[in-house]
Write a structure and sequence with these properties.
181 residues, Double Stranded RNA Binding Domain, six-stranded mixed beta sheet
Amino acid sequence: MKKIIVTLNIIFSVMFLFSCTRAIKPSGKANEKKVFLAFFDNQTIKPGVNEILTEFLRDIFLVSDSVKLVNKKDANYFVSGNIKEYTISAETYSDREAVEMYSIKIVVEVLIKKRTASGDFLELQSFDASDRFIFSESASVPKTEKNAVEETCRKLAFKIYNKIKQAADSDEKKDGGISGR
């Protein structure tokens, strides 16, 4: 019994040391693209759509190998956004003039700023991104408005991430490397 306890203590100690060394390992290349993602604003009547979009975008950054999400003081780039349009409209009608399918459209204004040598952020690029999703609450596999909002935000998050990555890549090529920290 004593051998088992000693062996388990050794295994847990090694696992603990291994996890500590991985946690204090340097974060990578000096000119790694590091982004601070601000919580997106919402100027629409649909509450929570900004939270859904920001979370999807944050999740994409967290699994990215080429662009890292960091706090503002360590960032080379600052990304903010504003959801400026949310519309839901009837797409198709039945013979009895009841709505069969709906369409959701979301439009987001995104601003990418680059850190200067003085530590300030200056605008690098701004763009609008939009997407729409058609859904039916009465289909054989019904989708709710909530499902449609999540799907639209997921697609928008990928579009926005790709534009941010393109802007950072283009900026890096232009400058011959990332400036700032």
